[in-house]
Amino acid sequence: MRSSWHWGYAACLWASVFAGSHFYWACGGSLGLNVSAGAKLATERPLWFVPAGLWGMGTLCLAGALLGWLLTRSLRYRAARRIQRYLGYSVGFVLLARGLAVEFLLLTNATHLDAAVSAGQRFWTLVLWNPWFIVGGLAFGLSALEARRRDHATSPQTGHPSSRSVPDPRTKASAT
Questions:
Q1: Per-position b or e across 139-170, b if 16+ CB within 10 A of its CB
Q2: How far is it, in rounded angstroms, from Cα 117 to Cα 99?
Q3: How many CA atoms lie within 13 A of 78 on its CB side?
Q4: Rounded Cα gap, residues 23 and 59, in angstroms
Q5: For residue range 135-161, what is the model confidence (pLDDT) as tens digits?
Q6: CA 25 from centre of chain
Q7: C-alpha R_g of the chain
Q8: How far is 72 from 146, CA to CA, in rounded Å?
Q9: 116-124: long-range contacts at Cβ-Cβ below 8 A with a sequence spacing of 24 or more?
Q10: pTM of the full structure
């Protein structure tokens, strides 16, 4: 199942790019931050925002990149493979739900946003940021689905391609 590799690497790349942007902002970069976090956070950068909002999210994105890479691998133990897939499904669901929910709220103006959210921030969130959350959610979800298919197709006894099966003693007896 080669397609699982593509989705897993896509999820890894997606998370790596987001980690890089958060680390860039945490180190003082500002390109794109004002339309992502808002002008107030981008200019003032409160004490909690840099360690939690930027370094913290960058670290979570790195963990997501590792998960995406692991979804391209078939782990040895069944329980580890199951946890790996559930994490992939969970990350995919959270990212997809976040992207779709924010898109819906911004398009319908259901929250009646005040002047704190500028028209420019709303526009860039709709056309740039949220679609990438949807793409990331699909990449993680599809990589977990393909990992499940790959693991189920490898070996009916163990689910792992490198495990060795014990030869049936009756087969040796009949061969001699």
A1: bbbbbbbbbbebbeebeeeebbeeeeeeeeee
A2: 17
A3: 8
A4: 9
A5: 999 999 999 988 888 777 665 554 445
A6: 20
A7: 22
A8: 9
A9: 116/38, 116/40, 117/38, 118/38, 118/39, 120/35, 121/34, 121/35, 121/38, 121/39, 124/35, 124/36
A10: 0.75
